[in-house]
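Task 17 of the worksheet. Students: predict the tertiary structure of the chain below and write it out as C-alpha cells. Keep your answer in the requested format; marks are given for formatting as well as content.
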Amino acid sequence: MEYSSEDALDNLDKAILRILQTEGRISNVDLAGRVNLSPSAAHGRIKRLEQRGFIQSYAGLLNREKLGYDMLCFINVTLQLHQSENVDNFKTIIQAMPEVLECHHVTGEYDYLLKVAIRNRKDLQRFVVDCLTPVPGLAHIHTSLVLSEVKYTTALPVNEDGAE
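Model answer:
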C-alpha cells in the first residue's frame, strides 16, 4: 500500500485515534471535549477517518482466560510446496479455525506464525492432532506455549510530532 499526502493526519486526527484505540466506548461529546472540538466537528472527523480507512472497525476485547482459554500458543508452520493452490488451500483452512486468533506469513525458518487460544493441554493436543496435522501440504509444525504475557496491547503508536 502506497502512502500519499492525502493520507496525512493532523494532530487532532492523531489525538482522536489515540483516544479511540484505548477508549472505544467514549461518547462523542466526551471525545470532543478532550480534543477541544465541537461534538459535530469531532463526529465529522471520525467519519472521515473511517471513510479513509484509518479506523477499520470497532470491537470489544474479551478476557480469554475468563472465557476458559487458559493457554495461548504460537505455532510455526512450514508448507511442503509453495504453489499458489497449496498456499490458498492452507489460508482457507486456517481462516476457518476459530482457535486461530492470528495467522501471519513470515520470513525465516517457517512460513506462517499462528497465534492460537486453547483451553488446556488436551485441547492443544486435539487442535494439533485433529485440526492442524491433517491440513494437506504441511511439512513442519513447531508449537511454543506462552508462559506469561509481558505486554499485550492493540494500540498503535500514533505520534503527535508529525511522523506517521
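Marker's comment: The longest helix spans residues 39-51. The mean pLDDT is 93.
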